Amino acid sequence: MYQPSLKVQPAEVSVLNATGRVGMPTEANCLNQLAHVHRLRDSELNYNEHQYNLNMQMLRNHEGLGVPLKMGMERFAARQVGRLPFLPSSNFMDDVLTGRCDSIGFEDFMNLPEYSEQMRQPHAVVEKSLGIYQ
């Protein structure tokens, strides 16, 4: 008799978000909720953060708490640098601090939707980010 694994529980969707419009690939809709998601997807999404945490733990064991704490504060400060809302950030400072600027991965050349170069109205985007609607 088949018994499901305790580690991997199937996720059942209780309410489907059905809309009559075509959405972006990142939005939750019926097809995206029912589509099969491979197990490696979550692993690949968290790979860089997991690698960074392993490196910081190894550095902490070797050098002590000061160096990873300083590097974490530098990374936090690099993330706080902002741009105007209609200009997407490349996160280059974060890539330099984590060492990802030296590697070329799929996300660099597969043209992900969040890196698409679509021109939006700057005034509308700033007004939306400030909560000013007309």
Automatic annotation (TrEMBL):
UniProt entry tagged with the keyword Protein biosynthesis: no
Keywords: Chaperone
InterPro entries according to UniProt: Ump1
Transit peptide keyword on record: no
Top-level taxon: Eukaryota
A family per Pfam: UMP1
Family recorded in the similarity comment: Belongs to the POMP/UMP1 family.
Protein name: GM23371
GN (gene name): Dsec\GM23371
